[in-house]
Amino acid sequence: MQEKMPQEIEVRYILPAIRRELARILVEEKGKSQKKASKLLDVTEAAISQYLHMKRAKEVIFSPEVIEEIRKSADILTATPTRQRLIGEMYRISNLTDVRQILCGIHRSQSKDLESCNVCFEEGMVLQVPHK
């Protein structure tokens, strides 16, 4: 079996888990319909139902601190329901240190030679691209 890259782990586990929590918060805490939540998150109503019934993205459990950040994102998405805002909030949440550590833990557990890997947190790993 070919080893996965961290980005593949993020797409398979982290981003769906963020969507799951956003869906749960929008429907259960903010009183949005599944239809409205699906529009806000740019997914199908069936996906929202699967998130709510833990049939999708059940592998990742976030800390209370990350859940609070996701609540803030739900408020922002409700106030400014644009695709650009959704992208920004997904990016913001996925780059929280606690979330990056979850990603690294999953990656290490799936790759035997990465037990002491810390690439995601090494100095200089976030590059600034110069603007023209």
Account of the 3D structure:
This protein has 132 residues and is mainly alpha-helical. The protein has one domain. 62% of the residues lie in helices and 0% in strands. The longest helix has 24 residues. The termini are far apart. The model has no long low-confidence stretch (mean pLDDT 88).
Write the layout of secondary structure elements.
Elements: H1 6-29, H2 34-41, H3 45-52, H4 64-79, H5 83-94, H6 97-110
Which terms summarize this structure?
single chain; 132 residues; mainly alpha
User: Quaternary state, please?
Assistant: single chain
The total tally of domains equals 1
Low-confidence stretches: none
Task: Give Rg in angstroms.
Answer: 16 Å
Series of H and E elements: HHHHHH
Tell me the total number of β-strands: 0
- Report the major sheet: none
> What is the 3D shape?
elongated
Share of residues in strands: under 5%
Integer average pLDDT: 88
- Distance between the amino and carboxyl termini: 42 Å
Assign the structural class, choosing from mainly alpha, mainly beta, alpha/beta, alpha+beta, or little secondary structure. mainly alpha
In helices, the fraction of residues equals: 55-70%
